[in-house]
Write a structure and sequence with these properties.
With 91 residues, the protein is mainly alpha-helical. The protein has helices at residues 4-9, 11-32, 52-76, 81-84, and strands spanning 35-36, 49-50. The chain has a two-stranded antiparallel ribbon.
Length: 91
């Protein structure tokens, strides 16, 4: 679950878009003044957030940006996913 298996399978086309999406999410959260009184927890501590709606807007925008960039990178780079996987051993 999450992005780690995708990043491990294709790090050069998954990690940079994830960094951009995360940066956009963080910038929106900081710029809009979203606060969180709990030191961790993300969406599970929404009751402790100031401006939770803006948090979810930022989360959705960052996720969409990450997804779009991953799709763009995978479509416009030289190798397909099938070419990146090791060849199956034939007997």
């Amino acid at each position: 679950m999450g992005a780690i298996p995708f990043a491990a399978a294709d790090p050069f086309r998954v990690i940079p878009p994830a960094m951009v999406g995360s940066a956009v999410t963080g910038a929106i959260i900081m710029g809009s003044g979203v606060t969180l009184r709990a030191p961790h927890g993300g969406v599970f501590v929404f009751f402790a957030m100031g401006k939770p709606l803006l948090f979810f807007v930022a989360l959705v925008l960052g996720t969409v940006i990450t997804g779009v960039l991953v799709v763009v990178l995978k479509q416009f780079t030289g190798k397909s996913d099938a070419e990146l996987e090791p060849a199956a051993a034939t007997v």
